[in-house]
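Appendix B, record 7
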Amino acid sequence: MSDPQHPSARSDAVIDESQLEELIIEAQTALPFELSALANRCASALGLDAALIYLVDLQQQLLIPLDEALESLPVDDSLAGWAYRTVSPRVVDADGGVIVWMPLVDGAERLGVLAVRTAALDGARMRRSRMLGHLFAMLITSKRAYSDWLAARTRTTTMRLPAEMLRAFLPPHTVGSRRCVSTAVLEPAYDIAGDAFDHSVVKNVLHTMILDSMGHDLASGLATSVAMAAARTSRRGGGDLAEIVDSVDQALAQWLPDHFCTGVLCRLDAETGVLNWVNCGHPPPLLIRAEQVVDGGLDSPPQPPIGLAGPFAPAARQVNEVTLESGDQVLLYTDGVVEARDANAVEFGLDRFTDFIISSSAAGQRPAEVLRLLIDAILDRQGNQLRDDATILLFEWRPQHR
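Structure tokens (predicted):
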């Protein structure tokens, strides 16, 4: 495979459409480990010199090449990382040519970067580089669903069994549309057990959920997994928010009667901005508007956790409603976030937590990057050893983005 640091003699080739068509057809059945070679061949067909695929690791700290002979690149301190963080191409001179660091994005989710090498750059080659990025983002998304090799390539240490089980249920970190986006992070990445998040777009409706199961073992992860499966079954069957929560209550009471979890489930109509939510014994969601936390904006009367059976089971869940304003952000989190302590036993705290979100957003950071920076700050504060799972989900409504 060609290295993009070393240009080939060809820099102005005419596109062979039949060859490109053959490569795209071949891509449908290509094995994940063959994507590196395929990227080079597609680049050549587009009149470019070479292309290398880098995928972000599970904790979004490294960009790991699919070519196992190459070194990983830091997200926070590299040109490739700049392209990933900003979701913008970065062009740099290199050995008589240029490298285009092109972000790999599927929908709203950042996957990594593509390093495209070409001897010269013009508008046509930039468009072709972008086209190549779109193609391989879709290929990676489709193939990682069944590829243990791709999953292993983006890990930096061994994953414990409870985390492996729970991660099988987790959706992509970021989902969204032109009107809204939802993004989440979860740590410790390789040792989670009871925390989880979920988000899904159903036509013009965004569903989000955060869960925190009691305990920190395999049974905790099992309870959370059952809760997520029940919520999805009801949601995909057309259930409204009250019915979704009721399904989770019944599933846990039936299958794991000795376990319960706290959680918040939300439903946002991305056309009207109407937000419905149910809080089941969990820290209240936070509403951020015009760079300020709206005091008590999403508070609601207390309700019991999910999964309580018998005399402790709630008669009916209260569904709350509010209409968001354009640009509003809603923040869901588990208590492990604000209770993270430094070496002097000082908590990260709710004020520090919200101030970080607000200042990073005001600085122009995208929601996914805001949470990446935040979870890094929390890990740094606690020496990369969290005492409890820490999960954050942030969604925002921006109807003007048409």
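Remarks on this record: The two ends are 41 Å apart (CA to CA). Residues 123-144 form the longest helix (22 residues).
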